[in-house]
Design brief:
Layout: E1 2-3, H1 4-11, H2 15-23, E2 31-32, E3 39-41, H3 46-57, H4 62-70, H5 74-106, E4 116-120, E5 123-133, H6 137-151, E6 160-163, H7 165-169, E7 172-180, E8 192-196, E9 199-207, H8 213-226, E10 229-231, E11 235-241, E12 253-262
Helix pairs in contact: 4-5
Length: 266
């Protein structure tokens, strides 16, 4: 039997941590002296303690650690660990994107944002639209584009979308994604033919990952205000190059177009 102090030195788990794991039913001592309450561990418990230590270093929550240790099948255990690692990778990507945005905000690149005022004629497109919550945007977009791709194998241009202001201001609003078409297909599933109205847009291009697009939105908004324009309608985006074309985020290009009108004399 090893005392809790000896076991602590061998496993690099503090005595306080070992007590907490015991109380949580995660790593129970081999024996507890009924008179003194002293905890004693067996040398065979060292590997389990080391596994717990590594899992906790990966920020695996205690309930999940318990599930992993209680799963006898090695493949099932590997699957549980793999799921957590994927969540960590997703979190790391979000952190990297946030750091990139923050650096861009704190050290803006010199030079004025390139913005074009563009008149866009009415256009008929194959589209899917719905009221969508902010948390469901990515999943809804992927499903809608899959339907459009199946019905329009040869689009007449890059895909795009229209997003109501409420989606940004209230976290829920109308989304419309589309593919331009030369020959309108028959409606199928959620896909319908829609005519986008003619509009004047203030257009700029966002380079790179979509996670940092809010910075470009802010820069475009400042340009609109400085040029005595006002936003008049849903934001339009056109995905000139994106994940559908290449896995390299450095080559992605997204056009952002704000419908505008002048609020003061030029």
């Amino acid at each position: 039997m090893l005392s809790i102090g000896e076991f602590s030195r061998l496993t690099h788990l503090s005595i306080r941590t070992l007590r907490r794991y015991h109380d949580a039913g995660l790593l129970e001592p081999a024996r507890v002296d009924p008179a003194t309450g002293y905890r004693y561990y067996d040398a065979t418990q060292i590997p389990a303690a080391q596994v717990i230590h590594r899992l906790r270093e990966l920020d695996v929550p205690l309930p999940e650690v318990r599930r992993i240790l209680a799963t006898p099948d090695p493949d099932a255990r590997a699957l549980l660990v793999g799921e957590h690692l994927r969540r960590l990778e997703d979190q790391l990507e979000r952190t990297r994107a946030a750091v990139t945005s923050l650096r861009r905000l704190l050290t803006p690149e010199p030079g004025e944002l390139a913005v074009e005022l563009r008149r866009v004629p009415a256009t008929t497109v194959a589209a899917v639209e719905a009221i969508v919550g902010e948390a469901d945007v990515h999943g809804w977009y992927a499903g809608a584009m899959a339907e459009l791709d199946a019905l329009v194998p040869d689009p007449a241009g890059p895909p795009g979308g229209l997003y109501d202001n409420a989606l940004f201001t209230h976290g829920r609003g109308r989304m419309l994604v589309y593919l331009p078409v030369a020959d309108p297909p028959a409606p199928a599933g959620r896909v319908r033919m829609v005519t986008l109205p003619a509009v004047e847009l203030a257009v700029t291009t966002h380079p790179g990952e979509h996670d940092t697009i809010d910075v470009t939105y802010g820069e475009l908004g400042r340009w609109v205000v400085e040029h005595a324009l006002a936003v008049a309608g849903p934001v339009r985006e056109v995905y000139l190059t994106g994940p559908r074309d290449t896995p390299d985020p450095g080559t992605w290009r997204t056009e952002i177009g704000w419908p505008v009108f002048r609020v003061a004399p030029a």
